[in-house]
Amino acid sequence: MSKQFNHRQSRWAALAASAFAAPLLPVEALAHASDRGHVLLLPTNYYLAGGAFAVAASFLVLSLVSADALGRVWHGRLFLFRFADGAGVAVSLLSFTLFVALIAAGFWGSRDPLSNPLPLTIWTLLWTGVTLAQGVFGNLWSWLNPWYGPWRIVTRLTRAGRRGERMPSWLGYWPAFLFFFGFSWFELVYPAPDDPAKLATAAGIYWLLSFVLMLVFGYESWSSRGEFLSVFFSMLARFSILERNESGKLSLCWPGAKLLDVEPLPLSGAAFLLLALSSVSFDGLMRTFFWFGLNGINPLELPGRTAMIGIGSMGLVATFFMLALLFSVSILAGLSLAGRLSFGRVAGLLVWSIVPIALAYHIAHYLTDVLVNGQYALVALSDPFALGWDLFGTANMPVTAGIAAGADAAWWLWNTQAALIVGGHILAVLVAHASASRLEPMMPQAVLLQVPLTVLMVAYTLFGLWLLATPTAG
Fold it and tell me: Rounded to a whole number, what is the largest CA-CA distance in the chain?
């Protein structure tokens, strides 16, 4: 059994190393709260071949479809109903109240991360659940965020924040980039991201700092380019199947259709999206036996997160630069084939094709976390201070970890994850094709422009499926 295990590991490690410098190839494997409790060593040969074929075939099919025909389909909308913004302040104030209660629970509740509602809410319900909701239902975070309601009250009572948007344009998305990097480092590298008191301190400081900056620069300005959660969630919301316009009209649309009319992102915005992809890629990679082997670590005798701060920090930075390099090379290669276009405009528009990839990996790699830790969250929220309360009737609910373990669970989990990753890449090819058609109206040039990026997406598909099945530890 051990020989078979080692043989399988080495075989797939060799495959990964040969495909686009696999040791640091950025692939979405989203992130935190709990580690995988079982290893899904399924026959990945067929999944790898089938996934790569599906992505490549979708590109070949789309290369025969004109931009006009694609646009007529994707711009279709089905009106549902209309609603106003009146409840936005109330919902945000309720969210702020819950946030304060969670911070209090972090300081004075249980020390066990699986019994304290703060780490479970942030790492499972927020970073996993809200991300999924954003990608399906639209920008719910614009209502749920804990800043808007308090900001409205303070600006009504005082003159603070009434001067409008004064955030310098040269800052771009760099503030959000830096905050996102700090968040990723805390989640992936910091020794105790689940410690309730330390997490409460970090979350409280970030809320206060963001609130002050909203008063200085204006809510709309800072939340659209400086507050990383709002920036990240609004980008994911463009992939959702629901669209609400300025008049409150809610319509049903195709997944990713709202990406067809976006403007090219500046360098800072493209870097933000690449960081979103690379950070979650590193989260998956850093848990594999392959990564431990690169750093000379025995995965059965892990030295602990404190001893790996330096390795983790360098890996997090390296995956970002590796992804940025691979993406830039694919754009430059496309420009060499297609001709006279600006690198900044092409990269700023085609980087939006990362959105469905990031969302697909986020859901796939957090699936077991939602199924298991989501149950712990329901229990902890009913008794946030470990005082024997039962606020929602779920304090004594049994947690069934077996929902994500066993042969039957492994079968449907892995197939669901594989379908999500392949489907996300196919949609990314579709978005890239539509974007390339906007940049280059001539169909042959548009196809040539996206060929190298499609090759990169196929490599991502291969590596993502391998990453799901490879043994992990820690």
Answer: 70
Phi, psi for 458 (deg, rounded to 5):
-65, -40
| DSSP sequence for 94-123 | HHHHHHHHHHHHHHHS-S-TTT-HHHHIII
**What one-character-per-residue DSSP string does 76-88 give?**
--EEEEE--STTH
251-275 residue pLDDT tens: 787 787 787 778 889 999 999 999 9
Pairing relationship of beta strands 249-252 and 78-82 according to DSSP bridges: antiparallel
- How confident is the model over 215-259, as pLDDT tens digits? 989 898 999 999 999 999 998 888 888 877 766 677 787 787 787
pLDDT: which is higher, 89 or 464: 89
End-to-end CA distance of the chain: 22
Backbone angles phi, psi at 251, to 5 degrees: -135, 155
> Closest Cα partner for 399 from 381, 367, 369, 372?
372
Residue 313 in tokens: 């920090």
SS3 state of residue 140? coil
SS3 149: helix
- ∠ at Cα 103 (100, 108), nearest 5°? 120
Q: Closest by alpha carbon to 144, among 134, 155, 156, 157?
A: 134
Kindly report, residue by residue over 271-318, the tens digit of the pLDDT. Answer: 999 999 888 888 888 888 888 888 887 766 777 777 788 899 999 999
Tell me if 51 sits within 8 A of 429, measured CB to CB: no
With contact defined as beta carbons under 8 Å apart, do 447 and 9 qualify?
no
| Residue 370 · residue 124 · CB < 8 Å | yes
Alpha-helical segments (H) within 339-442: 343-350, 354-382, 407-439
Three-class secondary structure assignment of 310-339: HHHHHHHHHHHHHHHHHHHHHHHHHHHHHC
Q: Which residue has the tokens 């990996």?
A: 361
| Number of C-beta neighbours around residue 37 at 10 A | 11
Q: With CA atoms as reference, report the closest residue to 96 among 151, 155, 147.
A: 147
Name the nearest CA neighbour of 232 among 171, 279, 273: 273
468 close to 421: Cβ distance less than 8 angstroms: yes
Element (H, E) at 42: none
- Per residue in 174-201, pLDDT tens? 999 999 999 999 999 998 899 999 999 9
Q: Is the pLDDT of residue 24 over 50?
A: no
